[in-house]
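Q: Second attempt. The first request was missing the SMILES, so the protein and magnesium ion are both included now.
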Amino acid sequence: MTELTRIGTEGLDSILGGGIVDNATVLISGNPGTGKSILGLQYIYNGATQFDEKGVYLSFEENADEIAQAAESIGFDGWSDLIDDGQILVCDKQELLRHNDFNATLDRLLEAFEETEYERLVLDSLTMFELFFETEEEKRTYLLKFSDILKSNGLTSLLIAEQSAVFPDQDIGLENFLTDGNIYLIQTPTESGVNRYIWVAKMRKQDIETDIFPMDIGDRGITVHESAAGFSMMGGRDDPFPGE
Ligand SMILES: Nc1ncnc2c1ncn2[C@@H]1O[C@H](COP(=O)(O)OP(=O)(O)OP(=O)(O)O)[C@@H](O)[C@H]1O
Ligand SMILES: [Mg+2]
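A: Got both inputs this time. The predicted holo structure:
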């Protein structure tokens, strides 16, 4: 039987058919402010607090203090204690970019993986990671190498991408071929704020719900309303939630 890694967020695990297949690499895409980083933090936090699974959070976006502040302000209490206890390893951009050579950074990550058994990893973000390289060839080489490191260390990973792409008009990038799954976070403006949605577009080897489901960001992070009827962006229903 396929082993699954649960996100630990009920509605989301449910539309995934239980979780993400162990050792898979999943791309989390969305516009700014759609909740990608929160989902990443939540995945790592839930792993440590609900499943006793150690996690690594790699960030090119923020430093470790800012990440801890973001985590604790959204209600992931004790984030800093989990780091002190070794349940969560955060490598921020200062750490990741310390050497001007990405090989050195990958070597240090490998050392950490040898010392401690981690189950989960988040990269925030793949988009920033890619900006680090000057040529397409270099980028490709490191992406493949990084992807290989994740697989061979048994990590189930979320890679965050800055990409609106519900209907992408660009070529599908290399990252889509490297990943086993694709989850999009979507927000649409309303008079009083935004409506938020999540769409699991692809998940290799898994029976998933491919409808688009409403979600909220609140005090405990992301909640996915799996019980609300999913709807299709192509289905022509103008207002999926009349009366709201
Ligand atoms: N405590 C909270 N309650 C409700 N909503 C919140 C809370 N904290 C943050 N948010 C919402 O979450 C959104 C930010 O989510 P997040 O930082 O994960 O987005 P992102 O997709 O990573 O964006 P970026 O691409 O800019 O990094 C904000 O737009 C804010 O509206
Ligand atoms: Mg972010």
